[in-house]
Amino acid sequence: MQVYRIMSRMQKAIALGPRATVRIVHNRLQGKLFSVLWRHRTLRGMASHSWQHVARALGVDAVFEQFLNRLQQQPEPRWLQYLADNNLQQIIKNADAWIQGSPSVLGGIVRCDRALPWHEDFRLKEQNPDADCMFSAHHFYQDIVIEVGRSEASLTKDIKIPWELSRFQHLLFLGQAYRVTRNECYTHTFMSHVDDWITRNPYMLGVNWVCPMEVGLRALNWIIAYWYFRTSTIIPTAFWQKMVCSLYDHMHYLENNWELYDGRTSNHYLSDLVGYLYLCSFFNLTKKASWCFDQIQAEMRKQVFSEGTSYEGSTAYHRLVTELFLHAYMLARESHMHISDDFEQRLTNMGHFIAWCSPRQNTMVTIGDHDSGRVTAVSITQAMQALVPQSTAIGIKTFYEFGLSCVKNTLWHITLRHHAYQKKQPSGHFHNDAGSMTLAMRGIPVFIDPGSYVYTPSVFWRNYFRSAAAHTTVTLQDEDVLATDERLFNLDMQETCLSREYMTSAKTTLSTKFYVGSFNNGVQCTRSLKLAHRENTLFLTDSLCKIVQQGMDDRLLRWNFILAPDILAQPISAEQWLLFHHDQLLATMWSSLPLECIATWASPAYGIKCVTYTLRGTCQLSIIKQENTFNFSFVLE
Known about the structure:
Blueprint: H1 2-16, H2 18-43, H3 51-58, H4 64-73, H5 88-100, E1 104-105, E2 108-109, H6 122-127, H7 160-165, H8 171-181, H9 184-200, H10 212-229, H11 237-255, H12 267-282, H13 286-303, H14 315-334, H15 341-356, H16 382-385, E3 395-399, E4 404-408, E5 412-417, E6 437-441, E7 444-447, H17 459-465, E8 474-476, E9 504-506, E10 509-516, E11 523-532, E12 537-546, E13 556-562, E14 567-573, E15 576-581, E16 584-591, E17 595-605, E18 608-620, E19 628-636
Antiparallel strand pairs: 1-2, 3-4, 4-5, 5-6, 6-7, 8-13, 9-10, 10-11, 11-12, 12-19, 13-18, 14-15, 15-16, 16-19, 17-18
């Protein structure tokens, strides 16, 4: 076993190359040394940095009032204007919900009339008051283990819930409402939330110090809030000192907890860097900021293909990393840092991909995982979008490296998923979705990807929502191409073995080739989608070829067409169905297979699942001989 581990590590080192290997080894050694030096101090409540230490480390005024005065005399950064939302009524409504209402966070209700539940899965408590909903508030962060739910019937507490609340994204609403109204009730709420969090989350103790990504995003949102509230005359100097010292703790933490792991970095490491860039900007650390932005540009080259798509294989995570890169871009422009042409071009292409994947404005289709992740409460604003050149996404387009073809015009929006993967990519946010399609008509989603629902609270639901059976594709009974297990953020993906001729987008036709069942046991399917504009009809053809096996003929092939929750299907016959949206006939579907309407699940946002329906067709695998063709059509009414 020991020999196997050594050989495995040597193979990984060879694959990564000497520079990346040295970097990861250095990071791990630094992390272990940091743990040894700081664990004892943290458990004794002596880890938080005092202003005297911060002032010495930064080389600034020893008297905090002098530092604060210099800070408040600085001009407001131009990047703040890009976060503005012109819907003033909605801004105030959102802010008021955090003062006297019950806002929702990841499907759970936050009770604002009491102390905020920084260490609790308040969503689970609302659903099941007797469940264990509490997370540690007093253990050293490296000693906290994330629990994984193994019961099909009930969920385990979800660590993402306290993390999400502790990102403090709601401070943007409070700050923008304060700027408009100058009502100090927003200031009081800002102060009470930040002060309470710092008091109840001592440096490096408890669940909210476990993940560096959360630390980076929290620091970013605190700094944004500072610029909104810095002119308030009711905020005492003692509060600002407490917050600034905690921000230094956040920076100190990030410097010793980079999320590098096995070299396949992700949105986590990028969040670490962007949060750190905000901190460097706040503390005016020019050299560190320059180093940080260089790392961010390197991550752009690594994590984003030249076509402008995220290598994590998910449209929702693509939007998240686009938002992160836009924040870095805003700060770099402000500080006159060198921004490479390649960075700007890929950032522009990332915006193009979002446009292609959006049936209508602000409605991006879900492909792969979706955890409702954002950097700030407003996500990507129109002003942020305008930072990079915009293009009109009309026609037909294939993103070969991401593995997605799109058709988009005023009436139709169609996507077709291809199997596309390289070993350098992390596989944790991919789904078993090769060959799956989404369809929207007149901007109305008809066939959808189901979302993700939850991650660690349930192995069962995690694997259900990323299974082939939960997508609009062809499946083989009880078998997925990519096996899922208790490794919730891993799929054993095979590198792309299909040539680009099978990922085609020509005129009005999309096509792909994928495996049903497994790579060497079941069926190979060639799926094509042809749009006939004059007839307002989409034709879907699946050509199946058995790749064989003994003892498999009693298995069922299943076609699933996962309906959006507000689409109602009514049969004319088993082969003809009417599709209604809010009692209005939208389309007619024809099938060469008898279909039945079966209840299933969809997840419109993380932590939420709702009943929807699938139109399902079945046939015995035994009828597939050399090649069989199955046809479907969708007529827009």
